[in-house]
Design a protein that fits this description.
GO terms for molecular function: ATP binding; ATP-dependent NAD(P)H-hydrate dehydratase activity. The chain has helices spanning about 5-15, 25-35, 50-70, 85-90, 125-165, 185-200, 205-215, 220-225, 235-250, 290-315, 325-355, 360-380; strands at about 20-25, 40-45, 95-100, 120-125, 170-175, 200-205, 230-235, 260, 265-270, 275-280. It is an alpha/beta fold. Strands 5-6-7-8-9-10 form a 6-stranded mixed β-sheet, sandwiched between helices. Residues about 75-120 have low confidence and may be disordered. Bound molecules: ligand NAX and adenosine-5'-triphosphate. Adenosine-5'-triphosphate (ATP) binds near residues 236, 288 and 294.
């Protein structure tokens, strides 16, 4: 969770000419972001502290379950990492082994995957009662884990509702700058993205949201987004590598309808097999945050595209046919134009500030650059 990145993205959109921007963030980041700008609407929709308390509670239950398995005399039964002596070492008798596995994924944990509970063993001389008691405690712990999982789903659902409630008022949504990598924040982001696709909202996916999509458990979501034509992904070099790795594991081979803006010395704007190159010269410094500026700038251009498409849909009732082909071309052109804006703004900011240039200086140049480009366009059209 960061405060700078969401501010950069949001402020850039405002400087492009967008009327209103709302930042949905953690309670912990809300105040600093609000203090950066009186213009931004900043909503605290979750608290990292509360999210951590869910993970802590889950970790506690899982540790208790592991301890319970060990108390059963485990070691060679079903999982590694147990240094308790085996039953054979302690009494040399035959063992009856029971393997226990938690019945559902833990609510957070490393990658949200199963934490295998080690196999337990019950010694003959402990008797059936001991085994029954152990099983009883395990069942109770499983119940606790289940109840916690249900509470978590309600908690996440509430956050998702809070954000998606605003969808009808939005023209575009940017997810990722400063998102952080908390597993529960990822769960929220996943559901928000799914709802955004259902609502056919313009989506700009950047930074940590791209990291999230490179994880195996979000593979289906990545596939959904790759075939969603109103999505623009803005990976840097590392993020593009991760995405490629994630996709190359099993490339479904389906049509890639979304746009990818691959940032670099030359930005490449890719739609399926079609690529546009932004060869505009930038600045000589690549300070942190310019990627966020680009994400915000693309969000502004995509919001205008959404408005244009809505107007055309309106026209369609008066027999004006909306051309699907031109829609993706316009989105491609808008992404390219946004990349040009950021390169030009970086160049001017660098000329003025040299080594001390920061993302804020780039943001300061956006307005003039957009105005100049608009004037150039007007002069070019006869
Ligand atoms: N002031 C802020 O609050 C900022 C927050 N940021 C946020 O920080 C989080 C993590 O972003 P990262 O970019 O560190 O995450 P990544 O995991 O993408 O990058 C990992 C590492 O790779 C390096 N890297 C990135 N592009 C590279 C390239 N072309 N060549 C060589 N190395 C490269 C990065 O410097 C970083 O050390 C995101 O949420 C992002 O939005 C950044 O946007 C920077 C500014
Ligand atoms: N090798 C490069 N040479 C020149 N410009 C570059 C290079 N790589 C990226 N850029 C430009 O820097 C800007 C930000 O891209 P970058 O790869 O730094 O994104 P990022 O890592 O996501 O940024 P952030 O610091 O906001 O996370 C883009 O405008 C891009 O065109």
């Amino acid at each position: 969770m960061y405060a700078g990145a969401p501010y950069y993205a949001a402020e850039s959109a405002l400087r492009c000419g967008v009327d209103l921007v709302t930042v949905y963030t953690a309670a912990e980041a809300c105040m600093p972001i609000k203090c950066y700008s009186p213009e931004l609407m900043v909503r605290a929709v979750y608290s990292i502290e509360v999210m951590n308390s869910y993970l802590d509670e889950e970790g506690g239950i899982i540790r208790e379950m592991e301890g319970e398995c060990r108390r059963g005399g485990g070691g060679g039964g079903g999982g590694g990492g147990n240094d308790a002596p085996t039953t054979k070492e302690t009494n040399g008798s035959d063992t009856r082994r029971i393997a226990m596995m938690s019945g559902r994924p833990p609510i957070g944990g490393e990658g949200g995957r199963y934490l295998p509970i080690q196999g337990g063993e019950a010694r003959n001389d402990d008797g059936v009662e001991v085994l029954a008691e152990g099983l009883g405690r395990m069942t109770s712990l499983e119940g606790k884990l289940h109840a916690l999982g249900e509470r978590r789903e309600v908690f996440i659902g509430g956050i998702v509702d809070d954000i998606t409630h605003a969808f009808p008022t939005l023209h575009a949504m940017c997810i990722g700058p400063g998102l952080g990598r908390h597993p529960l924040v990822f769960s929220v982001a996943e559901k928000v993205i799914q709802r955004a696709i259902e609502a056919r909202l313009m989506l700009i996916i950047d930074a940590d949201a791209l990291f999230m999509l490179s994880l195996g458990e979000y593979r289906d979501l990545l596939e959904d987004l790759r075939s969603y034509e109103r999505c623009v992904m803005t990976p840097n070099l590392m993020e593009m590598r991760r995405l490629r790795d994630a996709l190359s594991a099993d490339d479904g081979g389906g049509r890639r309808s979304n746009i990818i803006v691959q940032k670099g010395n030359v930005d490449e704007i890719i739609h399926d097999s079609y690529t546009m190159r932004c060869e505009e010269e930038g600045g000589l410094k690549r300070c942190g945050g310019i990627g966020d500026v680009l994400a915000g700038t693309i969000s502004a251009f995509m919001a205008w595209n959404a408005i244009l498409e809505m107007e055309e849909t309106h026209d369609a009732q008066n027999d004006v046919i909306t051309n699907k082909e031109s829609e993706w071309q316009r989105r491609l052109f808008a992404s390219w134009a946004a990349a040009v804006v950021v390169k030009k703004a970086t160049k001017v900011a660098f000329q003025k500030k040299k080594r001390s240039m920061s993302a804020l200086d780039v943001i300061g140049e956006i307005g003039d650059v957009v105005n100049d480009m608009e004037d150039d366009l007007k002069n070019a059209v006869p």
